[in-house]
Amino acid sequence: MKKFLSVLLVSLCFFALSPTVFANEIYVEDNADLFTQEEEKVISSQISSIREEYGIEVLIHTTMSIGYEDIESYAEDYYYSHASGNDGLVFVINLNNNEIGNRDFYTFWSDGKVGNTFGYVAFNSESGYINEEILPYLQYEDYFSATTEYLNLVEYSANGTIDYEEYLPKPNYVLRELVVIALGVGVGLVVVFILKSKMTTAVIKTEASDYVRKGSMKLTKSFDVFAYRNVIRTPKPKANTSSGGRIGGSSGGSGGGGGKF
Amino acid sequence: MSSVLEYKCPNCASDIKFDSESQKFKCESCDCSFSKEDLNRIHDFEENFGEGSKFQWKSNQSGAEEMSGMNEYICQSCAAHLALDETTSASECPYCGSPVIMNGRLSGMNAPDCVIPFKLDKKAAGEALKAFCKGKPLLPSNFVSDNKIKEMKGVYVPFWLFDCNADANIVYDATKVRHWSDANYNYTETLHYNVYRSGVVGFDNIPVDASTKMDDAYMDGIEPYNYAEMTDFNPGYLLGFMADKYDVNAEDSFERAETRVETSTNDAFRSTVSGYTSVTPKNSSINVENGKYKYALFPVWMLSTKYAGKNYIFAVNGQTGKVSGSLPVDKKKFWLYFSLIAAGVIALGQIFVWGGWF
Fold first, then answer.
1. Which residues in chain A have Cβ-Cβ distances shorter than 8 Å to B338?
2. Which residue of chain B has the CA closest to A192?
3. Is the Cβ pair A225, B196 closer than 8 Å?
4. Which residues have a Cβ under 8 Å from the Cβ of B253 and sit 6 or more positions away?
5. CB B140 within 8 A of CB B330
6. pTM for this entry
């Protein structure tokens, strides 16, 4: 019995110390050690609930440093190497060796529900609703509250409690009208100038195709020689690009956004 | 170890060396490589280049006797020299419409080698002009109804006709482009080829207007003539018509003929290069040897009309009825059509803007 209890205790310790695992997947990887065991359980529970209810896979990852890699690539690589599917997001907190003001938080979302619904308006660093809400917690180094609030807001976003309509960029109708007017003027001018060109048939000829003797064309030499090969390699544009205020795709597709604290 | 032989690169003309490992000649400058067989073929081809394009023309005129029994009319306004038979008179110049014409005995006008007789009469030429005016939305509405054909003259216009065989050697720089991507990069592969073409293409009877009074653009505009109906010259064809006297020598017409030969030869050889993304001529040499020319008269109806106080001249091919000229543009119609089309596009655009598709 004693032996059995020892084995049970060791097993419990093992599971308690290891990252939270659900269905062979790691939801929270707290490498910066920002959460207690209990906090991790709470966070994992929230994540499970979001996944079951809305089919969105959420990953939380904290780290002390990401080396020389940029946060955008780091988050994207992390998501695709850890996510089981292709419909979710990862929230990354990089303490950057605790260099205050230079610590990153960043969300990368994949193609799918998040990208097609609230990804851009929620995580766009300039006006992203969720980013703005969690930033004060991060600045106070209350990482647990920041993360739980983050997950609450993701859930509210997924179930429509938060109406993002007002956050969506408004169509610029003035610009669109100007483009349509310019197009109309352009098409009108092209058509009338084509009609005008048909009023004149007196044009100098520079070719003599009407006077080529039938059957006179004879090729005496004809060969093609390969000279050289040239390959140009250009990096694919990243889903997000801005510095400090990183902005992801506008709607649909994958993207990302975050900020510094 | 690689052994070394000296050659020139056909691509960049740098030194090229034989690489025994690849068994090919490699250029260290542009990184091209060529087989011995390719280099031999290129060497043979380039020997034909010589010093660029050469054109040689010689007269193929059958006789140079002067036309007799003709009167010469000289326009005091534009200095056109016109030959008419003794039974035909000219009341005004067919080119500029000036009524001041002096007549005298024709001298120094050589008989042409061939002629295309008039096939269209005056009425048919007028109908051809009316047909030309149809389907022109910018034409003033009253141009046809108010348009009075002031003068219509049948004129035999002098032309030089050039025959030749163009011997061409052309090198093209051709590319094949392929695109692909992996997870992180986009790739563009460009394969460069040197394309060699040699051969011959023949031309018959390229016409070049031999009268300075006649606008070249008007004469080019009524081409082509049907040469099957071209016949040896006989003064009888001129009865009732004017005949313009050439004032541009064959030598002065060579340049226009050569331009047309070069353009069409390049086009003909370019059409033999296919399967590439882009083809750019790199080097070309076109030689015309034993080019021949002769003197001909072609039938043209010159129509002079007046509309809104302005003269409009039209040339009608006296054989085919093809019309060349410039019709007036109604400015009100121009802006009306522009406004209607622009408004239509803008109205259509509103559906896209407010329907959320744009």
1. 188-189, 191-192
2. B338
3. yes
4. B160, B162, B208, B210, B293
5. yes
6. 0.62
pLDDT score recorded for residue B227: 94
Task: Name residues whose C-beta falls within 8 Å of residue B172's C-beta, 6 or more positions apart in sequence.
Answer: B194, B195, B197, B270, B273, B279, B280, B281, B282
Task: Write phi, then psi, for B61 (nearest 5 degrees).
Answer: -70, 135
Verify whether the Cβ–Cβ distance B217 to A204 is below 8 Å.
yes
Contact call for residues B184 and B231 (beta carbons, < 8 A): no
Binary contact (A183, B349; C-beta < 8 A) = yes
CA B28/CA B17 separation, integer angstroms: 8
Which one of A70, A212, A229 would you mutate to disrupt binding with B, by most B Cβ within 10 Å of its Cβ? A212
Instruction: Label residue B143 exposed, middle or buried (CB < 10 Å: 0-12, 13-18, 19+).
Output: middle
Write out pLDDT tens, residues A68-109: 888 888 998 999 888 887 789 999 999 988 888 789 899 998
User: Are the Cβ atoms of B193 and A225 closer than 8 angstroms?
Assistant: yes
> Across the interface, do A229 and B184 touch by the CB < 8 Å criterion?
no
- Enumerate the residues of chain B whose CB falls inside 8 A of the CB of residue A209: 264, 267
B345 CB neighbours in chain A (<8 A) are 180, 183-184, 187-188
- SS3 for chain B is CCCCCEEECCCCCCEEEEECCCCEEEECCCCCEECHHHHHHHHHHHHCCCCCCEEEEEECCCCCCECCCEEEEEECCCCCEEEEECCCCCCCCCCCCCCCEEEEECCCCECCCEECCCCCCHHHHHHHHHHHHCCCCCCCCCHHHHCEEEEEEEEEEEEEEEEEEEEEEEEEEEEEEEEEECCCEEEEEEEEEEEEEEEEEEEEEEEEECCCCCCHHHHHHCCCCCHHHCEECCHHHHCCCEEECCCCCHHHHHHHHHHHHHHHHHHHHHCCCCCCCEEEEEEEEEEEEEEEEEEEEEEEEEEEEEECCEEEEEEEECCCCCEEEECCCCHHHHHHHHHHHHHHHHHHHHHHHHCCCC
Given an 8 Å threshold on Cβ–Cβ distance, is B349 in contact with A224?
A: no
Of B201, B217, B220, the CB nearest to A212: B201
Quick one: which of B136, B135, B138, B137 has its CA closest to B330? B138
Note the ipTM here.
0.78
Q: What is the DSSP letter of A241?
A: -
Residue with token string 């059958």? B62
Q: Which of A181, A211, A223 to mutate to test the interface with B (most CBs of B within 10 A)?
A: A211
Interface test with B, best of A168, A174, A228, A234 (most B CBs within 10 A): A228
Q: Over the stretch B75-106, which tens digit does the pLDDT of each residue have?
A: 767 777 776 665 555 556 666 666 555 555 44
From B185, B260, B272, residue closest to A207, measured CB to CB? B260
Q: What is the DSSP letter of A170?
A: P
CA–CA min distance B312, chain A (Å): 12
